[in-house]
TrEMBL record:
InterPro entries listed in its UniProt record: ParD (IPR022789), ParD_sf (IPR038296), Ribbon_hlx_hlx (IPR010985)
Pfam family, one: ParD_antitoxin
Coiled coil: none
Family recorded in the similarity comment: Belongs to the ParD antitoxin family.
Native source species: Mesorhizobium metallidurans STM 2683
One GO BP: regulation of DNA-templated transcription
Keyword Methyltransferase: no
UniProt signal peptide: none
Protein name, UniProt field: Uncharacterized protein
Amino acid sequence: MSTMNISLPDSLKHFVDRQVADRGYGTSSEYVRELIRHDQDRQRLRGLLLEGASSAPGTPVDDDYFAALRKRAQGVADAARQDGHSGLVTESELLTARSA
């Protein structure tokens, strides 16, 4: 893992220290890593939203579409539980199930 040093004004350092103490982080590095991960997620979501907004209209969805989606997600969750996993469905598992 690489190291990075940052300079913060006292007010921001106190804020980070308070977040670490109040929210159960072990170090300020853990807190900053989580902030960076959240920003990466936000940027990814923004990109996906922009991509979707600029794409051609897809097939309209209705109650049958959502019923099939729930059924597919439930099947993936059931299979995961049988394999000893939590049963939570990841995006990649759902996409894999979709193409099957």
